[in-house]
Amino acid sequence: MLSPLPSIKRTQDFQKVFKKGRHAVSPVFVVYALANDLNVSRIGLSVSKKVGGAVVRNRVKRLVRECCRMMNVRSGYDFVIVARVPVGNLPKDGALVKVRDSLEGLFKKVLVIKDKQ
pLDDT under 50 in the chain at which residues? Predict the structure, then answer.
């Protein structure tokens, strides 16, 4: 079983990734990535109230965490994923696939997905 990615908790870490990291944009997400000095990758999520109520925001966060857990991402990076309003309107059926495809494309743009061997 795959283990979850550690989280970014501190505001300073979020700000560092925002200011110095590479970013990629889609209609559903914005992904920021910055190399860290750790052996693991960490993830930070930003889902505003514009996306939806608490239930919708928590569902989006669960979907994003699960997709990141399943992807083959290089170690040693901090990621901040900002959810945009359209992600709150995704239908329940097939949402995981749409989120995964969107995030996979963005991670490829910031060059942090490992090549499949």
Answer: 117
Question: pTM of the full predicted structure?
Answer: 0.89
Could you tell me if residue 52 is left (phi over 0), alpha (psi between -120 and 50 degrees) or otherwise beta? Answer: left
Give one DSSP letter per residue of the chain, joined into a string.
-PPPPPBP--HHHHHHHHHHSEEEE-SSEEEEEEE-SSSS-EEEEE--TTT-SHHHHHHHHHHHHHHHHHS-BPSSEEEEEEE-GGGGG--STTHHHHHHHHHHHHHHHTT-BPPP-
Which of 112, 89, 85 lies closest to 29, judged by CA? Answer: 85
